[in-house]
Amino acid sequence: MRSRCMVGARYRTGMQAVLSGVPCEGKDVWNGRGGHGCGRTPRGGRDTQGGRDMEASGVSDGRGQPGVRLLVVRPHPDDESSATGGLLAYYHARGVQTGVVICTGGEEGEIHDPTLDPVVARPHLRAIRERELRQACALLGVAELRLLGYRDSGMPGTPANQHRDAFVQADPSEAAGRLVRIVRELRPRVIVTEPPGGGYAHPDHIRCYQVSLAAFHAAGDARAYPEAGPAWPVAKLYAIAQIDDGQWETLQPAFQAAGFDVGRRQRSRQRARGAGPETATVALDVRPYSEIQRQALLAHRTQIPPDSVWGRLPAALYRRAFATAYCIRLHPPAVPGEYEQELFDGLPV
Ligand SMILES: [Zn+2]
Q: How far apart are CA 20 and CA 236, in angstroms?
């Protein structure tokens, strides 16, 4: 059963309008096309071809002295790369320690990797996707990766929703407690997560927002989850934002000239025009990191075939399509028209 989550993130950057049909799980939209990226290894990253464990990839699992300034909380393996990949690479390039929490194992995703037999691989998909996730995080320069440990809930209305280990079946308080423990361990100043409602009707995206919001508030409250470590107040909570900045429409002629009929596919979804860039609190120029983002996304081989649109789109066009990462500040609430240069505005260095 396909469990697609569309690049979920909707912090779209021009073409992210299109990416809204990309992965997360079974991105067959575009028959497996997706990506962001550049091919060069980010600072601190390593070649991760072939799959390695977390230690080998340079991504910490908690041993040593953990600590991050930015923590990105997403539902499925590949969400970290599809919608927040540019943002993570942006901050890594600036020497900011970043962390990623993935809530589920992505067990309901499709298997597009041509080197895998889907029947054989299916029972092992969680482990396969974890390896892909670690490769992607290494490419993005993520210092700390944590797994919340729940099972992928699948697309709305599918039997996977009812699995006893599904994220959507978890007790919300228990799930928030798991995240509080991670927040108090890693002590970020800023958390970025799903928008209210998930930005996409996948139950795990919706639940990810709910759990992140609860954990954001509870982490700084010493009375909440005292067993989860000393209280740590996080300064800001942001949501990735699906923004229609007009870039995608502007690129239509270029897409068509390059042989990609993005317009037809997009029009077929009959999407309404989304909120404009004036609604975003932060708009980061992530163009220099588009190829890193693409390589991270393509590390999720089970989800995104190398011959997908995301893998084949010319670099210059891809860079223009994924030019900006938009976020909306949820806490402290942004006032209408408020704009920040970046996520750490107003915070001590
Ligand atoms: Zn997802």
A: 25
CA of 203 to the centre of ligand 1 (A): 9
> What tokens appear for 342 in the block?
């970046």
Residue type, 238: Y
- How far away, in angstroms, is 79 Cα from ligand 1 center? 5
Residue 154 has pLDDT above 60, yes or no: yes
Higher pLDDT, 21 or 176: 176
Rounded Cα gap, residues 169 and 15, in angstroms: 33
pLDDT band at residue 66 under the 50/70/90 scheme: low
Domains and CATH numbers, the chain: 1-340 (3.40.50.10320)
> Rounded to two decimals, what is the model's pTM?
0.83
- CB-based neighbours (< 5 A) of ligand 1, an ion: 5, 8, 24, 75-76, 79
Yes or no: say if 134 and 117 are a contact pair by the CB < 8 Å rule.
no
| CB contact at 8 A, 109 and 303 | yes
CA pair distance 75, 101, nearest whole angstrom: 8
Which residues make beta-bridge pairs with 73? 101
